[in-house]
# Entry
Amino acid sequence: MEQFEKLYLYKRIVQAKLFIDHHYAEKIDLDNISDQACFSKFHFIRLFKTLYGRTPHNYLLKIRIERSKLLLSQGHCVFDVSQMSGFDSPTSFTAAFKKATGQAPSVFKERERVRQQDIRNNPFFVVPNCFAETHGWTKSQFLRDDV
Amino acid sequence: MITKLTHLCIYVLDQESAYDFYVNKLGFIVHTDAPMGEGVRWLTVSPPEQPELEISLFLVIEGDIFDKETVKTMTALVRKGTFGAAVFTCHDLMATYEELKTKGVVFKKAPTKEFYGYEALFVDDSGNWFSLSQLNP
# Structure
């Protein structure tokens, strides 16, 4: 019986985690999330941390930062990314991003742009030669005279 | 002195499907996704808390190493579930098991108590199997 209760508990926490995964771009907070799991806020935070190694708030922030990194690397502007990732404002986004990654979103975006251009010009900057040879990829296939 | 493992190669049968499995189901982060011509990509992903490890989702395709016959053999072997590719760990196996099952990941072994902790086995979209473990504290 105890095992079934534990399993039921797990399912509720997992549902709450999936709720964060699906709704991170919306204005959700801890109350929304603990409501999903039908727990008191305190109990919920404790269980979530036990299962996932970080608090729900911390996890939500991590998901938003990871999403924003992907969007920035796809070329979206900082303002749009802050909206699309669920941050209150570009200011709060920039502050959170800088704290998490050590660099401003605009700097990250520019570095990603340069990195992707380098990869396009010469994938051998990132593909270990042993793997390239396995596929029959050669440097002359990608290297241009001007790079 | 060898210091670190930086790249790990997993043979997959479809890179688009593998991207969906590893990124959208397992929650891995895309490290590099570079087109290499003729529908082939250099696609590497990383476990969320190990961003320095690149797992290359390597397409089984005819090239310098794999001839046509080898591709056929490898495809059959991967699909058959011959290859156990790696061991992943998580904070809580039951929670991760429930989550991945909800997302449609197929398990060939439910969480089971082992000497070192708990272990489950899941299969990727190509047929490779992995151990998912929660180690004893």
